[in-house]
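The passage that follows is intended for readers who have already worked through the single-chain material. We present the inputs for a multi-component assembly, then the predicted structure in tokenized form, and finally a short commentary. You are encouraged to pause after the input and sketch how you expect the pieces to fit together before reading on.
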Amino acid sequence: MAPPLVFFAVFFAYPVASIVGRGLRRDGGWHLGAVGDVLGDGSIRHVLWFTCWQAAASTGLTLALALPGAYVFARLDFPGKRLLRAVVTVPFVLPTVVAGTAFLALLGRGGFSDDLLGFRLDTSVWAILTAHVFFNYAVVVRTVGGLWAQLDPRQEEAARTLGAGRFAAWRRVTLPALGTSVAAAALLVFLFTFTSFGVIQILGGPTYSTLEVEIYRQTAELLDLPAAAVLTLLQLAAVAAILALHAWTVRRREATLRLVDAAGTAHRPRGGERVLLAAVLAVVALLILLPLGVLVARSLDGPGGYGLTYYRGLASADADGGTFLVAPLETVWNSLRYAAAATVVALLVGGLAAAALVRRAGRLVRGFDALLMLPLGTSAVTVGFGFLITLDKPPLDLRDSWLLVPFAQALVGVPFVVRVMVPVLRAVDHRLREAAAVLGASPARVWREVELPFVGRALGIAAGFAFAVSLGEFGATVFIARPDSPTLPVAVARLLGRAGAANYGQAMALSTVLMLVCAASLLVLENLRTSADSAGEF
Amino acid sequence: MKSVRRRAMGALVLATAGAVVLAACGGGSGSGSGTGPGAGAPAASGGTKSKTVTLVSHDSFAASKEVLAEFTEKTGYTVKVLRGGDAGAAVNQAILTKDHPRGDVFFGVDNTLLSRALDNGLFDPYTARDLDQVASDVQLDAAGHRVTPIDSGDVCVNYDRAYFTAHRLAPPQTFADLAKPAYKNLLVTENVSTSSPGLAFLLGSVAAYGGDGWQAYWKQLRKNGVEVVDSWEQAYNESFSGSGAGKKAKGDRPLVVSYASSPPAEVIGVSPAPAQSPVGVSTGTCFRQIEFAGLLHGAKNPAGGKALIDYMIGKAFQEDMPLQMYVDPVRKGAVEPEVFVRYGARIDHPTTLPPATIADKRDDWVKAWTSIVL
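Having made your guess, compare it with the prediction:
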């Protein structure tokens, strides 16, 4: 448990505490007057209120639209299921700048819905809510669906044999079993939407602001560190409360269920299920596939008609007027290397943390579990600026080190690794290990023959998740990325920041490349996973 | 069992590949071009550090390879560029890290943020060689020489030529025009608290109407249907109907707050070259931004930093800037590229405000603007 704790302390707690302390301390004393000032500010209270209610509304809407999807992906067999499940996860890891743009293209002014159906969403709070569904659909499908696939369908059948109607059987048998995982998914979605940044910036316009946006503004634009510090503490407190609730529901889930192999539970759709399948596919097509499609279409829509002009431009350092000292396409390579390093760090730290969580029990360890999730709910600008002011002196002078980026990215990867690894490690029956040892296997052989087959697959899944989130991480990376080697999302943002059709087209092309790289790594993930691992879905 | 083992091996291979990449990066060899994450790391810590000069800047900094190579050839120093966020975020980072500066030279503080940087003691004085070749009206710290002007650029309203031709309407030219009924619901601008062109446009209106009159002007603009979005990217790429990106996004606003250099940017890479840019500039709506470079207090390589500042106001760098950063040179006699001259707009009388006034009033203005417009 020590190495993950040290990592967490050095790369999260220390930088965040320092930047918050910088805001609240002056001349060696604490100045807590800022707390009253900030909380007394009417516009801040308005921000707080909006942050809460939009998160609640987004969570409700996401559950309403994604729960049927969870059922379809868990219980029904249809062609292309694996590919589709990988694709619906892509928005979750795409930088919000890019996905928000694609989304706007579809549902905004002159978009698909405007042309065909006469409604547009770009000026209302509906845009924010719907975009949150777009981003978090996969969280519900994977968290709830993963469990749903492993519930024994015979229990529901038994209830029906005993005279319950189809709906009553579902409500009395399946729903209670799923309840805790639905709650866990809901809390995760609430966490992600509570700390929403890019979506609010792009779709909300200047009138809507969340705590996260306000922290960015106060820190990066206004340099009002006292206000930023108070807001950061406020957000940390809220997120800690959400996480405590989350940990509680997860524990309840782990205690009660009897699971079966997911391979046997899915079936071909019959009767009304075909209608359900069609409805779910329609929602997925409209909300997820079409926006992603718009992105691809724009990247191909060059000056002389459709073609690969912008992609060719990416290969040359001069085509964009020299925004980079290297060809934009080289950022793919940079991103892959950073993400690979971040994955190794996240696997080491997260794997050790998961092992510690499984081997020990108790309140303290459970608190540690929630602690590791805290970076997911902390403003990236706080972490990024915190890195800059703390990791700048020996023995921790890392500002010139390329390692800073993978470390920052690993912070968001670790929680995923822990979530995936814990249930799987827990499932390795210790009697198997003992039996092997009794039969004369050496410890190394026990590990290789007994534990690796279980853990290896989960490691693959965890690696995939960590890799994908590292690839898409933007907020912290933009502040610390070594500029001679920008990452893909940073390069996209830089291209979007310049005038000219060529820059915009190349930004779209580079985003498409990012999307493909994400989808490919998720597909590899899908192929590594087998039904027995589903309980370890995030 | 066999397939299980194969998958486990796959995961192992993945992890091992990651470790190999880690090792390769850590070795500092990088890829052939020397731009990998590991490249340059040894130079920063080894005995060769005096040969590297580090430039800290914002995301928009750009210079061509040839020009940077020429600097190395002439002085023996290699430039390492650290970029961090937009102009405001980059200045704030520099202020936060001033006790342990990240580099030797900071470039990219403009007249709207200059006082904040100077008041925080970010820079050591240095009088650049050839400073007499730089126009005197951009030398805003002429007494202290803590910063050296490098470029200037004008934030102006841009218009969609096609729209105004099709509607047989003359494009607006001045601040006053924008409030006229003929241009109702046509303008999109940026939130002044999150966007630097947005702030510059507000400052321009303050310069034009004075500290007392600008609020009434913005009430008129609001009544005339001005749209406000959070960032330049959104205003120019999504809402504006005249830019290449805006056309794809079906932007519906033919007027946008952008830069005087946007028109040339729209024709670069377009062949055959059009007679004029699809975007025009309302030349009476401009606010001049001047960007400065300064020697960071506590720099590890002050000699290299001084050489770099000298080089940045030299002819080669100045003539390279327009196509790299879409800004104008400040050096007298620096020749602008043909595409700039042909498609760009000449702004003879931009508005401007003294940095000290901006520093004093900025927060109040932003607050007042927010309550009027949002």
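Commentary: The mean pLDDT of chain B is 85. The two ends of chain B are 64 Å apart (CA to CA). How closely did your sketch match?
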